[in-house]
Amino acid sequence: MTPYKTAMLAALALMCAAAGPPPETERMVPGGQAGFVSDGAEGCWLWASGIRAGATGLTASWTGPCPDGPAEGEGRAVVRWEEDGVERSMVYDGALRRGKNEGQGRLMITAGKDTRVVQEGVFRNDHFVSGRVEIPAAGIVYEGGWSLAHPNGRGRLVIRGRVIEGNWSNGCLRGPNGWFAFTRPARECEGADT
Prior knowledge:
Blueprint: H1 3-16, E1 35-38, E2 45-48, E3 56-62, E4 73-83, E5 86-97, E6 100-111, E7 114-124, E8 127-135, E9 140-147, E10 150-159, E11 162-168, E12 172-175, E13 178-181
Antiparallel strand pairs: 1-2, 3-4, 4-5, 5-6, 6-7, 7-8, 8-9, 9-10, 10-11, 12-13
């Protein structure tokens, strides 16, 4: 083997070397802080949040590159865990930056064989900000702006064929007969900023 090939193989081995686990202060804690989950094999880290306390068997996998630990670029990110005896997962197809959903993508959250929520559109810093949200079991589809956990901005909600659209403010929409709420109790809408 030539010295050039040997040097190239050594450089490739360093690039592919496992990054190891994420720092303790940045690790995901079920029921607590959002943070990184390591795939345990190549050292790729994926950001996860919203997993309840008591979750067990937390695992992660990533099909794209992870040059410094956090997943980076295009690929498929999967975080799995068990909660109340049911296997659950978050499957994200799209772009990641520093282990977080960033840009155009599709997130599917499952419990057992059931798809609970699908978000498809634009993500920023691991938060869904606009696009389409579907809750299949409830027959709900929302398209429009989104802020953290609520419709925000211009949007259209379809619930089992009934269409409600307008300018949402953190899950609240003022209609001719009062407030309509989605993702929060209607009583919380009285103080909503619209």
